[in-house]
Amino acid sequence: MEKKPCKSEEVEVRKGPWTMEEDLILVNYIANHGEGVWNSLAKAAGLKRTGKSCRLRWLNYLRPDVRRGNITPEEQFLIMELHAKWGNRWSKIAKHLPGRTDNEIKNYWRTRIQKHMNKPAEICYSNQSDCELLLDQQASTSQLPCNGTNADFMEGSYSPLSSFSHCNNNDAFYGQQQQQQQMIVESSSNHEDNYWNMEDIWSMQILNDD
DNA sequence: AACCGGCTCAACCGCCGGTCG
DNA sequence: TCGACCGGCGGTTGAGCCGGT
To answer: What pLDDT score was predicted for residue A27?
Structure first.
């Protein structure tokens, strides 16, 4: 009874960046068994990771409906509007941006929006015109990383769905995957052998799924 | 070409509330 | 009722990338 429970099993807990093998194991396991108790899942899948780490990796990166990069002007407007309303309630804000994670929104806010907060026009953005003012400022400083152009947005011709219309697939699940893969391919075409994208992960998962 | 500083974002940390035995 | 466990959340960190000098 002197032995502390579980301590001996905590010896080997991996931290740091996830490897492709770990991603594959996690995706494969969830595809076959679904999400469950994360600590148990980590052990059952044979991952030397904490349940928290697995959950975070799945929710922020591996989940098939995660959209990555290319925050659209409308999303930016929504983020600013909801942040003005709720403050740093990132998960609450994320619920109103399908496919976006709280972590991504949080990062986006801190790196792309917060640094401009000293500018007077950005202090109050409770309506569309305020947002347009901000977007106009950002356009002049080339700070807007998005698919749709500012001109599209200003002229009202831009639609948040239009950038993804090529993915209008009956199978929403794989449509989102394709959309995600395309974005990743477009944004990181110079990745070398040490990198991989969700196409790699999911194609391997599909192969292993039978 | 090398160095440096700023930027980005994946991942971790610590805390809190809910649930269950 | 209480303690252990778990998930969720917001804040923070650090490695890698990139552009400027």
So the answer is: 92
A44 close to A72: Cβ distance less than 8 angstroms: no
Q: Which nucleotides of C are covered by protein (CB under 7 A)?
A: 5-12, 18
Question: Could you tell me the domains of chain A?
Answer: 9-62 (1.10.10.60), 73-160 (no CATH), 166-208 (no CATH)
- A121, A134 in Cβ contact below 8 A? yes
Per-residue pLDDT, A51: 92
pTM higher than the cut 0.85: no
Residues around strand C, C-beta < 7 Å: A 5-6, 36-40, 51-52, 55, 88-92, 102-103, 106-107, 110, 190
Q: What is the pLDDT of residues A63-82, one digit of tens each?
A: 888 887 778 888 888 888 88
Tokens of A7: 């301590």
| Span CA (A151) to C1' (B20), Å | 55
Say how far A199 CA is from C20 C1', in Å: 35
Distance between the alpha carbon (CA) of A69 and the C1' atom of B5, Å: 24
Residue A134 has pLDDT above 50, yes or no: no
| Angle, helices A20-33/A198-208, rounded to nearest 10 degrees | 50
